UniProtKB/TrEMBL annotation:
Cited PROSITE patterns: HTH_LUXR_1 (PS00622), HTH_LUXR_2 (PS50043), RESPONSE_REGULATORY (PS50110)
HTH luxR-type domain residues: 268-333
Domain Response regulatory: 33-149
Residue ranges the record marks as coiled coil: none
Keyword Acetylation found: no
Organism: Paraburkholderia kururiensis
Pfam families, A to Z: GerE (PF00196), Response_reg (PF00072)
Name this protein carries in UniProt: Response regulator transcription factor
Gene3D superfamilies the record matches: 3.40.50.2300, Winged helix-like DNA-binding domain superfamily/Winged helix DNA-binding domain
Length: 336
């Protein structure tokens, strides 16, 4: 192991100190990444060897300044930070880390021989999430890092899902292994498993996409990840679909699941606007951008019959255009 400096630091432009903001080094792979910051090379070597033996990719820095340069290039899963270092100590280093919005939620574990309460409290105040005392016990530090890596990645996935304004989302690897899933997604996945005649999620370790979704996802990857990726099927009045979006980690993707209960939506429109069931069905499909001909094909009626329904609907809704009618539907269903 090169314990003289953070490997990522070699990616900085030596002429002006600017960080190379390209892709992270390939050698990091998909392993959890730990940045160790300690001014003692022997400590770095010991901790690095220990963590690598437990399956982590390790970055090292001999100073707070070197650590900040590493973070300009690579965002680790956890930082293991020596509290007492010359020049910029661990507390100042942590403070400066947290000033960057990218690292606001980065877990920082302090290492210190100082167990006095004021030092422990100071570590938490500057943004630390945990601490271990020196001399560090290998099993303890690995257990703590493992817990914070899992929590950090779960938060990363949840934030990514929330940024897509969706709650039913899961993160999957290229082989279909489910790395994380929201409770709403877990419930919808069970519908796919039931359709495929597969045991429930609890019987599968590690959990993977159900066969139908796994085949669709593998085909999408094999075709070079084209922009459009949609899988749909209908089960009674419930229409289910799956789409793919990029995930925050390389080699992972977010699969977004949606389900629409046409019967429930129809009944909501009937109640809200005093419509007949057929009028509500026509209105529902208008809100989804379908033409009269499309609606006729879907509902098994002539296009002119659809048009007559629309004339009644516009009067009942006090609107004059399809767009205005669709806006009322969206507003009503968002509240239901």
């Amino acid at each position: 192991m090169n314990s003289t400096d953070c490997p990522a630091a070699a990616l900085h432009d030596a002429s002006d100190g600017r960080a190379d903001l390209g892709e992270p080094p390939a050698w990091l792979g998909n392993r959890p990444v730990v940045l160790i910051v300690d001014d003692t090379p022997d400590n770095l070597a010991f901790l690095s060897d220990t963590l690598q033996a437990h399956g982590y990719a390790v970055l090292v820095a001999l100073s707070g300044e070197a650590a900040l340069k590493c973070l300009a290039r690579v965002t680790p899963d956890v930082v293991l930070l020596d509290a007492m270092m010359p020049n910029m100590d661990g507390f100042e280093t942590c403070t400066r880390m947290k000033q960057d919005s990218r690292h606001e939620h980065l877990p920082v574990i302090f290492m210190t021989a100082l167990t006095e309460s004021e030092h422990v409290v100071r570590g938490f105040r500057v943004g630390g999430i945990d601490y271990v005392t020196k001399p560090v016990r290998p099993e303890e530090v690995c257990a703590r890092i493992g817990a914070h890596v899992r929590r950090s990645r779960a938060q990363l996935y949840a934030n990514a899902a929330l940024s897509l304004e969706t709650r039913a989302a899961l993160v999957v690897a290229a082989d279909g292994t489910i790395r994380w899933q929201s409770p709403q997604a877990a419930r919808q996945i069970e519908a796919y498993r039931a359709r495929d005649g597969q045991p429930s999620d609890e019987a599968i370790a590690p959990p993977r996409l159900p066969p139908t979704l796994r085949g669709w996802f593998a085909d999408w990857l094999a075709r070079g990840c084209p922009t459009k990726a949609v899988h749909e099927f209908t089960e009674g009045d419930v229409r289910r679909s799956a789409t793919v979006a990029p995930a925050p980690e390389p080699g992972e993707w977010i699969v977004i699941l949606t389900e629409v209960d046409d019967a429930a939506h129809r009944d909501a429109l009937v109640e809200r606007f005093a419509l007949t069931a057929r009028e509500a069905e026509v209105l529902l499909w208008v809100s989804r951008g379908k033409t009269n001909r499309d609606i006729g094909d879907i509902l098994g009626m002539a296009a002119r019959t659809v048009n007559k329904h629309l004339e009644h609907l516009f009067r009942k809704l006090h609107v004059e255009t399809r767009a205005a009618a669709a806006a009322l539907v969206v507003k009503t269903l968002d509240r239901s």
